[in-house]
Structure prediction request, 175 residues.
Amino acid sequence: MAEQIHYRPEQAKRLRPETADELEKFEGRIAEINDLLDQLYESGLMRWLKDFVGAMPEVSMIALDGLNTEHGQAGMRNLLVLAKQLGKVDPDQLERMFNAMHAGLDRIDETATGEHQSPYDPPGVTGVFKLLRDEDLWRTLAPVIEGAKAFSAESRRQRNDTGKQQNGDGSDSKG
Prediction:
């Protein structure tokens, strides 16, 4: 004879504690997703994304037509070179450089509009000799001069490397 099944409906309707916790977390996440979707819809971003995705074939054809030109290909190559070079620069160093450039451009603008008075008026002959001995001026110009030297040396090196590659045998075509 078969054994009796011990089934109690009130116990079957109750969830185990760990299942109840997981269900509660899941319901919280679903509520957050619904809130996000509501905000995206109310802001108009959802409609814009829907229209953009719907127009994707036309948008991609326009983009491909633009990239399939000499200028488009050169632009993409330039973007790749820029991204590669930016990858070599320390972000903190880049930020300092841009902050310094910003301060320099502000000072240029202030001096040009007369908001900042430069101590350097047209020097005359004796003033030029004084400027040549001005330590603050040389401390300020030293990084610019060294940067120009490094730029010039690297440009020369790349020109020489390109010339050697074009000759094919490693000899310089100029001499």
